[in-house]
Design brief:
about 350 residues; alpha/beta; Rossmann fold; six-stranded mixed beta sheet; 13 strands; elongated
């Protein structure tokens, strides 16, 4: 079985660690073609000598948000381009580091590799291990980092502008203070989202925002039960909760669905208006389009930006209003957009959209 897997991907089985790393990675090809519902796959181009490996955040797949959107983007690009594609969803950062370290030390032969670290949980690991790369055929892309000294391609989707719009919308719905629930206190992107929401809320006449955290590590993004209990607690003092906690947000939405009069909230990463009537809007990241864009650039040998940040004007993030709130909130959100972009630009150098904006 191990030899067969290695053969599929063009590896010679001369060393045991080559087999071990492949055994830790799943063949995404079978997942993607299995989801096609009988529709014949159309391959426009063939890149047999190129391989993309995706390392998801620990416990990320199945979050019905950011990580599942990445999977959709991989499905789209894999149906268009015939390249080798592997992914892993480790159970811990330690397991993820073992996979990445093995790959760094692996002789991949004639295969060109792009290793995607699909979460800023891997910042420290990347800073520590990436100087070990000594092959021009190995490239690394790290998601959602603000650090510019990591020897890899990096990008970040700025949430500050879209969160500003969510704050403005929230201020028009409630009297009193709002709350923000973050997954980790050590995540710069999440903290900037909290800042953006707070500024939008206050600029629209809100009285103030209190910020709460589930954890000081990546584990805060996989604590939906804790988020449920925290939402129950916060609903006693706040009428709007803005959750920026990854997969833990599912606990917030479950509470909002079970107690529909308790608290207003917002969706995150995808349109989550269907989860509960109290989801007023959603900060939607088009990470599926962005990962497809970067893979396309790499496959075609085009130059990728070393470090990039994408904000409201890029088309890769926006605030989507839930249907039942759209009529009342649209004028407020539209009037606040220019200021949201200005606030975002104060802290970020925002790159314009690429030609795949739609």
């Amino acid at each position: 079985m191990n030899d067969r897997v290695c053969k599929i991907h063009g590896y010679r089985t001369g060393r045991m660690y080559r087999i071990n790393i492949i055994c830790r990675l799943f063949l995404l090809f079978f997942l993607l073609t299995g989801c096609s519902s009988g529709v014949k796959e159309v391959i426009e181009d063939s890149y047999d000598s190129k391989q993309v490996i995706v390392l998801f955040s620990p416990g990320g797949i199945g979050d019905m948000g950011y990580n599942d959107q990445i999977l959709r983007g991989l499905q789209t690009i894999r149906q268009e381009k015939n390249f080798q594609l592997l992914f892993s969803a480790p159970s811990s950062l330690e397991e993820g580091e073992k996979i990445f370290s093995d790959w760094l030390n692996m002789d991949t032969g004639p295969v060109e590799c792009l290793f995607i670290l699909a979460g800023n949980e891997y910042e420290e690991m990347a800073s520590r291990l990436l100087p070990a790369i000594n092959s021009p055929d190995k490239q690394v892309l790290l998601f959602e980092t603000t650090k510019l000294d990591i020897p890899a391609y990096t990008f970040r989707i700025s949430m500050e502008g879209a969160s500003y719009l969510a704050g403005a919308a929230a201020a028009s719905l409630i009297n009193g203070k709002a709350a923000v629930l973050c997954g980790s206190s050590n995540d710069a992107t999440v903290n900037r989202a909290a800042t953006g929401f707070t500024q939008g809320f206050i600029d629209q006449g809100g009285t103030g925002v209190d910020v709460f955290y589930l954890s000081d590590s990546w584990q805060g993004y996989a604590m939906s039960d804790s988020a449920y209990r925290k939402t129950a607690q916060l609903s006693q003092s706040y009428r709007f909760l803005f959750p920026v906690a990854g997969g833990s947000n599912l606990g917030v939405y479950r509470y909002a669905r079970e107690f529909p009069e308790a608290i207003y909230t917002a969706g995150m990463d995808v349109d989550q208006s269907g989860y509960a009537n109290q989801v007023t809007c959603s900060v939607v990241k088009r990470i599926d389009r962005l990962i497809a864009h970067y893979i396309n650039q790499w496959l075609e040998g085009k130059t990728m930006l070393q470090h990039a940040t994408y904000g409201l004007e890029s088309g890769y993030i926006d605030l989507v209003l839930s249907p039942r709130y759209s009529e009342s909130l649209l004028p407020i959100v539209s009037a606040s957009r220019e200021q949201a972009i200005a606030e975002e630009s104060k802290t970020d150098s925002i790159y314009p959209s690429y030609s795949d904006k739609r």
